[in-house]
Structure formats: structure tokens, C-alpha cells
Amino acid sequence: MTEFVASWLSAFVAGARSAGPAELVAVALGLAYIVLAIRQHRGCWIAGGASTAIYIAVFLKAGLFLQAGLQVAYVVMSVYGWLAWRAGGDLAARPQSWPLSKQVLALLAVLIATALSSPLLSQYTDSPAPFADSLGTWASLAATWLLARRYLETWFWWMIIDSGLATLFASQGLVFTAGLYLAFAVLAIAGWRAWRRDLMTPE
């Protein structure tokens, strides 16, 4: 186990040294996004939108086409999140819980979309991981919508999604970005605790 961790850290450092300026800026903005989101600060959507705009080029270069397309959707979702979190909007000011039955339906929708898109991605692109690329894309879209609506369960979704995406990105040589997504997975635990505390605190 110790040798595995040492090997992974060595690869992470090497990836950080080889990362281009664009990836480094995107990583920094991505970290700002998640920290601000945990604090329920509206500025998270600005940081997130800027980070994902940069990642469009990063993922296209890596051949992760659906992930690149996902970043375009993220930019749009960032605009939606910014508007939804504005003062005086129709969104609840505190985190809310989303029923399990609706989460199951959302998961089924993600799996159906993955089943439809992964064969197309495999046939018409040279994506190295069509299934993982598809699953990560559709699940991330669902989780981002949950975050924009301030549903507590978004953090549980992100714990799983970010862990899986970290593995995908590391396999494509984006070790520094993989490290970012592992950090996202850990920060999602903090997000869950912070939002749950707000949810459980009497008004």
C-alpha cells in the first residue's frame, strides 16, 4: 500500500511539472469553485464557469470528447447556477433534501443516456474510454443540477463521480487533474457535512 501511494504521488508530481499553464489555471479555479460552493457563496459559479471553459481545450487534447462537451454544458450550468443563487430568486436560501425515489429516476436516466451515447462515442470517435467518458458526463450533469438547486445529495453524487473521474483522467495522463478530482471527492465529504448541518439547524 505504501509503495502504491508513493508511486501515485511520484506520478502526480511528474504530472504537475508537465501540466500546461491552462491546466494549472483550470485546477486552481476548480478548487476555488468547490470551496466557495461548500460555503454557498454565489461566486462559486464564476470560478466554476471559468475553470470549465479552460478545460474544454484540455479534454479535447486528451481525446475525452464527451468530457469536453460536458465542460460546455458546465459553462451553461454555471450561468444557471449564478442566476438561481441570486438574492430574491425562487430558490430556497438553505440546502434541501431530494427524495430517494427521484434520485433513483435520475440514476436510471443517467444509465440510459450512457447506454445510448457510449456506443456512438466508440464508433464515431477515437475516445480511449467511451463508457467511462459517457457515464462520467451524464452523472456529472445530474449532480451539477442538484448543486444548482441546493440539494444536499449533490455531495454524495460527487463523492462517487469525482473518484471515478480521477481514475479516468489519470489513465489518460492528466495526473494533475486526476489529483484535483480526488481532492474534489474529499471536499465533497466536507460539503455534505456543512450542508447537512445547515439543513438540520432550526431556522
In a few lines, what is going on in this structure?
With 203 residues, this protein is mainly α. Helices cover 80% and strands 0% of the residues.
Folded structure, characterized:
With 203 residues, this protein is mainly alpha-helical. The chain has one domain (2-87, 98-200). Helix content is 80%, strand content 0%. The chain has 8 helices and no strands. The protein has helices spanning 2-18, 21-38, 44-62, 65-84, 100-124, 130-148, 154-171, 175-200. α2 runs antiparallel to α3 (44-62) and α5 (100-124) packs antiparallel against α6.
Structural key phrases:
203 residues; mainly alpha; 0% strand
The major sheet is characterized as: none
> CA-to-CA gap between the ends?
46 Å
SSE order: HHHHHHHH
Name the average pLDDT. Answer: 83
What is the share of helical residues?
over 70%
Derived structural class: mainly alpha
Q: What is the domain tally? A: 1
Which value, in Å, is the CA radius of gyration? 17 Å
